[in-house]
Amino acid sequence: MVLEHRVRSMPGTDQDNADPAEIRIVDVALRKTVADTLGNAVLEYGDTIKFSIKIFNQGSVPIDSLVINDTIPNGFTFVTPAGAINQGWTMAGNEANYTWGKTPNDTLISGDSATVFIWLKLNALPLGTKADYTNRAEISKAYGYDGVDVSNQDIDGVLNSILRRQTRRSARQPCR
User: Fold this and answer.
1) What is the DSSP letter of 159?
2) CB within 8 Å of 52: residues ≥ 6 apart
3) Which residues pair with 76 in a beta bridge?
4) For the whole model, what pTM was predicted?
């Protein structure tokens, strides 16, 4: 007796057993650098510095929006938003916050990057006060399609933890 197994073909269906699985990886990062000292070759107290914060989608999950936090140390002052300067940034204590991805065209697909800017003024501090000129930024939240929070799915770990280490290594900008 021969058993025969026949598969009925259905139009538009795949008949093999080798369908690829989609691996969804969330991996966002940033790099912070000095973008412009606004024409000053040597910085002096009171000068404004433009910092560039480049965000990267290193994963396979499209990112629709994310929240950037920039801790402002006592050696800097946040420049009050005016014109294009610091638009979209809000202050809470010594932290400036920016939500990237406010329009449908802002989605970061895999391999994409985007840049935002923050302007800070260099402070002179009273004698005896230890000045801190190490400016750090981090991504605290990331959202995929339809506003789904994917922050805890980052392949490197929780966004805050991994990016805090990363910004210490690559985004410090001491001013001299």
Assistant:
1) H
2) 32, 33, 34, 35, 115, 116, 117
3) 122
4) 0.75
- On the 0-12 / 13-18 / 19+ scale of CB atoms within 10 A, 108 is buried
Alpha-carbon dihedral sign for residues 36, 119, 140, 24? negative
149: left (phi over 0), alpha (psi -120 to 50) or beta: beta
**Phi/psi at 145 (nearest 5 deg)?**
-55, 145
Question: Please, which residues bridge with residue 70 across strands?
Answer: 96, 137
**Dihedral sign for Cα atoms in the order 174, 38, 49, 42:** positive
The model's pLDDT over 121-162, given as tens digits with 9 standing for 90+, comes to 999 888 888 888 888 999 999 999 888 999 888 887 656 433
**DSSP assignment, residue 26?**
B
Q: Which two tokens stand for residue 11?
A: 């139009």
Residue 163 CA to residue 108 CA, distance in Å, equals: 18
